[in-house]
Design goal:
Largest sheet: 2 strands, antiparallel
Shape: globular
Number of strands: 2
Oligomer: single chain
Distance between the termini: 21 Å
Radius of gyration: 13 Å
Structural class: mainly alpha
Low-confidence stretches: none
Strand order of the largest sheet: 1-2
């Protein structure tokens, strides 16, 4: 289905995750972050989002434990940056599919 985010019509699934990764922009990320009550996005948020996008592009399975071991951010900070479901929210904002490890 389609949704207008940041003035752009994008394809999303029933949960609101982008289905076309190439439609993602930083403006869309900012708008999704606002919808998810995250932000304003700081440099640390962007480091995590860019890390997630790179891992997704490489085909790496994403997990909270893996992010904690990445050196990008520790788990406590990850939860502080993306409260109430950090991996789900961060993935949505990063414009990548919801990780299989998320319920």
């Amino acid at each position: 289905m389609e949704k207008n985010i940041a003035g752009v019509t994008v394809d999303v699934n029933a949960e609101g995750y982008l289905t076309q990764i190439n439609q993602w922009t930083e403006a869309i990320a900012e708008a999704i972050a606002a919808e998810e009550a995250v932000g304003p996005l700081t440099n640390k948020h962007w480091e995590v989002l860019n890390y997630l996008r790179k891992q997704q592009a490489a085909g790496t399975a994403l997990s909270i434990r893996g992010i904690g071991k990445s050196g990008v951010v520790d788990i406590q900070t990850f939860y502080a940056l993306f409260p109430n479901g950090p991996l789900k929210k961060a993935s949505k904002i990063a414009g990548i599919p919801k990780p299989a490890s998320c319920i």
